[in-house]
Each structure stands twice: as structure tokens, then as C-alpha cells.
């Protein structure tokens, strides 16, 4: 079996460390390689390189260079598509179609931000006669990007591309569970010939020393973080001491609301995928199903049948519908959440759980679960599970559905299933979430803002608003006076 040796990418060079971590295939638990695991030292070197690149290269001042490099990165990812899909499937456990979905989403994001770099502009105005004001939008400096393991390629690109477009240099921390993916991505992003050394740096760590340095450093004024709400709150508290800018996409507990006029046949496969894509390890995973009384039994029973038939298996098997969780500790964690919910009164329609015998027993596999609930205060309803576990609950009226959906500290996304357009729009406006998908799920586009309400985050990714995490506004006031009036006093 091929083994890999990941490297950090710092100041244009690929470097390792005396301290090494081990990479595994979550489907088999076989060792697939090693990676440098000295996050604190790597982060320090990366911050230094990024700071130097920001001060001494043309990057912050040359929008055309930035656009050119982002376009070159998009081409590089397309050239290396198959390799990226292979390593995503191997180390991340994604079935091949889902790995392809992730890899194929990156080039368009890079091209979108290349276009935004070319069109980025401040503004000018004449607030009073004889006065001229210019508002500049300037890059903040070094941007720290902290990436989770669940979709490491697309979530890295989603954060660093707008940072680069804005003129920032970046330091990206990738988790140890995605070390080999990080290394292949770094090799791919290093291909553009016009990229100055130090503009983009990537390091890997199993712990949090390097991430902590990014958050604490006075040389990193802005952080883009995707991960848990708990961690997002903690790093925000630390960064507040330096008035640091944060863009945070955090946890979710996405409700899927099914009204009695929903189109059942196209809906059920989407509800299934809303739970099983990335094995439920996705911030927008559909984890709360709210169904109107009239169709409740039909939806519950038919969806249960579909979930029982989900073929769980490795990415190497083209018949697999859902891959493993990222590791066995997460299998144990999710199984305990399900058992605690059953003990607290939830009814297991489909119990799901770990696969403990047969050829898949060595891997981190977990069959999807469907739990019927009536008490919205249960932890299984209120807390993010980050695994393929779905609760189902009935409602009577539209107002009941809205109240149940909004009974949460999270507000990342939701979906609404109805043929009544007026109802869809009413409910979408009433839901306290950042994205609402009508008769669909997780339709995210490069040009539309994505982010959450409440404990689901701060700021927006994708769309023009994503630049706000990486720019400062500067007002330059001038008093040129008025032409043809030599006696006029400027500004009066």
C-alpha cells in the first residue's frame, strides 16, 4: 500500500518536523502516512513569512496580480482533480461522488474571487463644496484561516480565496485528520508561477498550539474560523483582547419542515441525502425533521425504509452510499448521544449505530439513525450531533412549525417543503437562520452569502460580504477648493 509523507508549506518551501503524527484511513484504520506535528513552531514561521510577504511584495497593492494568481490556482486544482479526489476519499472517508463534489467546487470559488479582485474598489464623494473625500478599502494584513477536517479543501478555499482577493496574505491551519489532503492541496496551490513566496502558507497540527498562536498574535489581525460553536466562542474571547476581527461559521441544527402538500417523491431522496452526505459531518446536515400531522406517518415510515437501506461502506467500493465517520472516538461519541436520547424518551425508529462485525468492523462506520421525539428540550434536539442522526417530530399548524424550528440556539440553515409559494416565503422570512432552501437542501453558491444567526456564527462567507472580514476602510479627506473661485475658502 502506498504511504504518504505530508509537508507544511511555509514561505514557498515544503518542510517537515522532527515531531511526526500518523495519518489513517478511517474506513480501515490502516496507517497511510505521517505528517509534521509541531504546530506552534510552524505557525510562528508561517506568520513571519506572511507578514514579510504583506510588507515587501506587491501582493497587497496589485489587484491584477491577485486575480491572475487566483485564476492560476483554479486551473491547478482542475489539473490535479483526480489526485485531490483520491486523497479526500482515502483520508477523509468520503465516497467518491462526495469527494468529487468537494474538489469540483473549488475552482469556481477561486475564479469568483479573481473576478472580485478585479472589480474591488473604494469610492469618492464631494461632501461639501471644495471638499473631496476618498474611501479606501485596504487589506488588513495577515489573515489566519482555521480549517476543520470535515470538508478541508472547499472550506479552506472558501476562507482563503476572499482573503487573497482582498490583498491579505494568509496562514492556514489544517487539522491532523486531514494532513495528507492539506499537503496535496498545498502542492497544487504552489503551482502558479506568479505567486510570491509567503503569500499563502499551510501547516498541519493534531492539537491547537498553532491555532492558538494565530488567535493570540498581534501580527494576525483577522481570523476566519470554521468549526464548533464552543471553540468559536473561546477564540473570540481571546482575540477580543486585541480587538481582532473574526469571521465564524459555527455549529448548526438544521430543521427540515415538511408541510402536507409537499411533493413526496422528489423530497424523500433529498431528505435522506441531507442526513447522509459526508456521513452527517456537515454544518448544514438536516438533523431535525418537522412533519405536518396529515403526512407524518407516511414520511416517517418511508424515510425509515430508505435509511435502513443506506449502504454504508468505504470509498473504495463504488456501491457505497455513505462513508465512515472521521475516527472511532467520534463513532463512540455519536452512539452515546443516540443511546442517551433513547434513555431520555426518544423512540428509535431506526436505531443505527456502529458496525461491529464483518469486513467493516475495523473502520469508523456508523449506520444512520432516526429518532422520534416530542420534547424539544432533549439534548438530541438542541445540540449539534455531527453524525448521521435525525430526529422527527410532528406539528399541526404553520405557526407551530415555525416555533419548533426557531426553538434553538443555532441558526445556520433550514429547508421548507411545500407547493404553496406564499407559505414558503412566509415561513422563510420567519425562520431565524442564515439560509433557507425551498423544496431543496444545501444549495450554496459562490455569489450568495452564507452564514448563521445566533450561535451559528458571525459574518458571512461566499458572496461580496465575505470581503468584510479582511478589509479596513480608510477615509482620506482633501480640500482642493473650487475651480474658478480663487477667493473661496475651501470647505466653506
Automatic annotation (TrEMBL):
Membrane is among the record's keywords: no
Pfam families for the chain: Aldedh
The keyword Acyltransferase is assigned to this record: no
Residue ranges of every copy of the Aldehyde dehydrogenase domain listed in the record: 23-476
Molecular function terms, GO-annotated: oxidoreductase activity, acting on the aldehyde or oxo group of donors, NAD or NADP as acceptor
Active site: 249
Highest rank taxon of the organism: Bacteria
The entry's keywords: Oxidoreductase
InterPro entries cross-referenced by the UniProt entry: Ald_DH/histidinol_DH, Ald_DH_C, Ald_DH_CS_GLU, Ald_DH_N, Aldehyde_DH_dom
UniProt family annotation: Belongs to the aldehyde dehydrogenase family.
The protein's name: Acyl-CoA reductase-like NAD-dependent aldehyde dehydrogenase
Originating species: Rhizobium azibense
